[in-house]
Amino acid sequence: MEFFEVVHTQRAIRRLDPDPIPDDVLRQILEAAVCAPSGGNRQGWRFLVIRDATLRRRIGDLYRDAWYNDLLKVPYYRDASQAPADSDRAKVVSSSRHLADHIGEAPVLILACLETEGMSAGLTQGASIYPAVQNILLAARALGLGTTLTTIHRFRDREIKTLLGIPDNVETAALIPLGYPLGKFGRAPRKPLAEVAYLDRWGQATGW
Ligand SMILES: Cc1cc2nc3c(=O)[nH]c(=O)nc-3n(C[C@H](O)[C@H](O)[C@H](O)COP(=O)(O)O)c2cc1C
Predict the structure, then answer these.
(1) Which residue's CA lies nearest to atom 5 of ligand 1?
(2) What's the CATH superfamily of 3-196?
(3) Neighbours of 18 (CB within 10 A)
């Protein structure tokens, strides 16, 4: 696929076919992940590919529990039922709930992790894992696979780490369900560029 077609049609795909994903496809996706930049080129990323059905189910149970018992306390999600049913917010929350109910059925979960070297994780450190995560999303799209960047598992970080044997000095940055899409790829709703891009001074229109 042409690069810009991949970028313009990559979006959260939360309805996934449970059919397995071949090893060589997974390998290609991970090869793309490790092309990403990281601070000092330290490459503290680690990618846990979870295919075992029992592990997926147990992670799915933890994720669902976190969605209903923790995420729903966040006002954006809690109050979404008051938003019009056809609003972007209502659609995202409903789709996110569907994923919470089914994430363990995705044929593969990739847990993107980062070794923290004892530093507390923040935006700067996070910047050393998310380019690799984005490469995973784009490579998957180019290969016809659906993904969603998710973080709700972090409400159950302790249980996830114990389940998967992840050491304490490692952050679990993103849980990415991967599978052939049941829905369609397509252009995602985004604010117009004129609203978010400035030239030289904050708030100054680019004019192009
Ligand atoms: C940092 C981050 C965390 C996210 N966490 C979740 C999540 O836990 N669960 C989920 O279903 N989607 C999650 N998403 C996906 C967003 O909801 C999605 O990217 C956004 O709604 C745009 O979707 P679209 O590309 O289909 O328009 C996350 C995205 C980002 C960037």
Answers:
(1) 150
(2) NADH Oxidase (3.40.109.10)
(3) 13
